[in-house]
Amino acid sequence: MAKYVQDIRGVVNAEISNKFASHLGTIIGNYLGCGQYVLVGRDFYTPSQMIKRSITTGLMSSGINVMDFGVAPIPVIHSNMDFYNASVMISISRSHLRPEDVNIKIISDHEIPLEQRPGEKVSWKEIGELNYVHDYRDRYINAVVEKAPKELIEEKGFLLVLDCEEGLNKPFAPDILHKMDCQTILIGCKDTQLEFSFPEPNPQRISLVSELITAIGADMGIILDNDQDMVVFIDEKGNRIRDQTILGIFSKYILEENPRSTIVSSVVVSKSLDEIISKKEGKLIKTSVNQVLSGIVEEDAIFGGDEPGMFVFPEFQLCFDAIFAVVKMLEILAKNDTTLSNLAGEIKQYSRTVFTIDCEHEKKAQIIDIFKDNFESKYEINTLDGIRVDLDDSLILIRPSRFEPLIRVYLESKSAEKLQELSETVKSMIEMVQ
Known about the structure:
CATH superfamily of the largest domain: Alpha-D-Glucose-1,6-Bisphosphate, subunit A, domain 3
Strand order of the largest sheet: 1-5-4-2-3-6
Strand content: 25-35%
CATH topology of the largest domain: Alpha-D-Glucose-1,6-Bisphosphate, Chain A, domain 3
Structural class: alpha/beta
Distance between the termini: 44 Å
Number of helices: 14
CATH architecture of the largest domain: 3-Layer(aba) Sandwich
Largest sheet: 6 strands, mixed
């Protein structure tokens, strides 16, 4: 069974209106067929509430039975799909990029065609039912705790600083950590300023967590986003650990227990992960950024992840799950009787930079062709998502934005000096087309 994630993002009450959302619900319902079940949920953002209601009415108008989870994280909703025999879940939340945007995330067992077309409504006798779900909290918490090495984590008595993005009046992670005898300092659960952003978290929030870690001698700091499918880890010294390093930590220790297994990440992945997986005799599959989850399913991978801070542990569920990622990190720390900074120190670090360059849509293909012509005869290239060039000691990735007139550039090298040279070379090549 495949697994697909489809994202729709736009300005609330403009690009994403109530009419649009209702029609989207009807289109999804038409694809699934009358009488099927769909799970829906949202974050605490008021526009998310409005758009969720519109999607719900569209689903019901096409004969879909809706299970409404109210305010609930993505991994928690997803963990209930089998319980309700549902093949689709929809989550609505504030965009991580702009506060005026709302993000509609559809996770399904089949890719749903979302082209603009008239929606078909059922007769009044076939309208779907709306059911409010209230008993999911303990079900998810118990499932996580049962999967974790509870006694081993309890023995360590971890002291943690947890920053939850606004969205839950009763967050899940603290309850789970409490059941494993972790002492948790909880901050930031009601941010009404709408300033928090991913993949670059608000520096003030990172600074606050870092200062608190060092002040009280905590073992680790954790920042969860409003969907609870992304996580930032901060070590016991107050240093944020890069997403690619966390990906390397998880991969290394999972492969030690499951040698020669497959791991999936996107073309954005660091060269260091190739080296880690090769040493462990594993296999790394690189997908497009939007196909990591489906790639994990198709390749029967034991683990997968991607920037920014998104990780999938198929042993638990086929969904990006930040809460379970925290528990898994505690498991690794406990089993190895070590610190997060020591784990990070074992992962080779490449100098890395990411930036964007304005680019008209019609010139994007030309830029890709230039890099292809310059490198394909000498180096390994990957064109699944833009173009990735693996040089001897460096990496170039050019990814055109699907929605905006710009391209994203990812560069990596063994030295800061080489990275600067590579950056200037890449910018010059792109300017040739501008």
